[in-house]
Amino acid sequence: MRIGDLLARKQPVFSFEFFPPKSDEAAAQLERTIAELVPLAPDFVSVTYGAGGSTREKTIDIVTRIKRETGLEAMAHLTCVGSTMDELDSVLQRLTASGVENVLALRGDPPKGQKEFTATEGGFRYASELTAHIRANFDGKLSVGGAAYPEKHVECANPAVDLNHLRRKVENGAEFLITQLFFDNHKYFEFVDNARAMGIAVPIIPGIMPITNASQVERFTMMCGASLPFRLATQLDRKRDDPQAIMQLGVAHATAQCIELLQCGAPGIHFYTLNRSTATMQVLTALRTIGFVNKASATP
């Protein structure tokens, strides 16, 4: 089923994000994680696409295998980096031939060693261009999503300009948006309000990453431009040498985030799992226990 159709049911949609492994050990870990999370019956899962398209084949393999072997809906990330239009079309044709119906269209990060994005000759400069191309050539076959940034894209100096770019993606065919991770719900609510004021009406799914490691989350926030609320940052610093305490704090904070988001009408939650299952399982189990899973809500 296409994600656009899932969201049209006006019920919270829960999804997990994985990334292609880079070693045999990491591949085994991902297999264990998928096996542990499948029983939670997510509405869909997504698989990222490495910088410069470096994991293209693994992304295609994992997405198609999840779809075939588990029956879960699977969405492939697809970037403009390092690919011509013909090469991207070949990937899209392989995905649709395998029964995949969902794609997240992204510009992508520059390849390792490059500071700035440079469009490939014969390729696309922006996610909005890739989105328009998919809509024009694969309409009826693929549901297309886009990325959104509650605290703006790290490369954009002006949040209003960033929202204009987002509106162009939606005008070019993005049916839904998934946000970058954030830890302060006020950032999401303010972002949605501003997006609606700009005429962006599609569902905006919040992306949540349960914290499991203090140094790791600090590194991620620096890379993507997200911020840590002062109180949360203080607690992380105090507990950073106690892995179990960090896990408990991360799960508690993510659970509280999800409860407030769903109470206020978020269309679902997209979990950044980092190919680990424990924290996500604990958060989703808590949401199920208090009745949020499969509970109808309005789409913001």
Give structural notes.
This protein has 300 residues and is an alpha/beta fold. It has a single domain, classed as TIM Barrel (Alpha-Beta Barrel), CATH 3.20.20.220. Helix content is 46%, strand content 14%. The chain is built from eleven helices and eight strands. It has helices at residues 3-7, 24-37, 56-70, 85-97, 127-138, 159-171, 185-197, 214-224, 230-239, 243-263, 278-289, and strands at residues 13-18, 44-47, 74-79, 102-106, 143-148, 176-181, 204-208, 268-272. α5 packs parallel to α6, α9 runs antiparallel to α10 and α10 (243-263) crosses α11. It is globular and about 50 Å long.
How are the SSEs placed, and which strands pair?
Layout: H1 3-7, E1 13-18, H2 24-37, E2 44-47, H3 56-70, E3 74-79, H4 85-97, E4 102-106, H5 127-138, E5 143-148, H6 159-171, E6 176-181, H7 185-197, E7 204-208, H8 214-224, H9 230-239, H10 243-263, E8 268-272, H11 278-289
Parallel strand pairs: 1-2, 1-8, 2-3, 3-4, 4-5, 5-6, 6-7, 7-8
Main features:
alpha/beta; disordered C terminus; 8 strands; eight-stranded parallel beta barrel; TIM Barrel; 300 residues; globular; 46% helix
Task: Please report the number of helical segments.
Answer: 11
Shape: globular
Structural class comes to: alpha/beta
Tell me which oligomeric state these chains represent: single chain
Cα-atom radius of gyration: 18 Å
Q: Please, what is the average pLDDT?
A: 91
Question: Care to count the β-strands?
Answer: 8
CATH class: Alpha Beta
Secondary-structure element series: HEHEHEHEHEHEHEHHHEH
State the share of residues found in helices, binned by percent. Answer: 40-55%
The order of strands across the largest sheet is 1-2-3-4-5-6-7-8
- Kindly identify the CATH topology: TIM Barrel
List the domain count as a whole number: 1
Biggest sheet statistics: 8 strands, parallel, barrel
The CATH architecture is Alpha-Beta Barrel
Strand content: 5-15%
- Show unreliable segments: 295-300
**Distance between the amino and carboxyl termini:** 21 Å
